[in-house]
Write a structure and sequence with these properties.
Belongs to the ArsC family. It holds the Pfam family ArsC. This is Arsenate reductase family protein. The chain contains 6 helices and 4 strands. It has a single domain, classed as Glutaredoxin (3-Layer(aba) Sandwich). β3 and β4 form a beta hairpin. By secondary structure, the protein is α+β, with helices and mostly antiparallel strands. It has a 4-stranded mixed beta sheet with strand order 2-1-3-4, sandwiched between helices.
Length: 121
């Protein structure tokens, strides 16, 4: 199996489920604490490109920080560079976990999504 990098928050039950699933699937994991060491703007650009998702999908819209900053209303008026800066400045704003093998990227955790993306033997 492959070596995957997982941007995660150890206290997050979704992250724990994702890590457990990936380990059971036989992957070697490099875990990065998303709050203590959020991805840089450059890393985020690569992750967004590899995911095929819109940048707004990388925001943890149910998180406290997102709500406290009023981003629901502010986000549409921010440019891509400003959004990337915001994400890299606070890992708790990032939807997690983010998993990458250097090419493919998944955001969040759904078992069927993982089976499609990470179950390649």
């Amino acid at each position: 199996m492959s070596h995957l990098k997982v941007y995660q928050y150890p206290k997050c039950s979704t992250c724990r489920s994702a890590v457990k699933w990936l380990r059971e699937a036989g992957h070697e994991l490099e875990l990065q604490h998303i709050a203590e060491q959020p991805p840089t703007v450059a890393e985020l650009r690569v992750l967004v490109a590899g995911s095929g998702l819109e940048l707004k999908k990388f925001f943890n819209t149910s998180g406290e920080v997102y709500k406290n900053l009023g981003l629901k209303d502010k986000l549409p008026s921010l440019g891509e560079a400003e959004q990337l800066e915001l994400l890299s400045s606070n890992g708790m704003l990032i939807k997690r976990p983010i998993v990458t093998d250097g090419t493919n990227v998944t955001v969040g955790y759904k078992e069927e999504q993982y089976a499609a993306a990470w179950n390649k033997a």
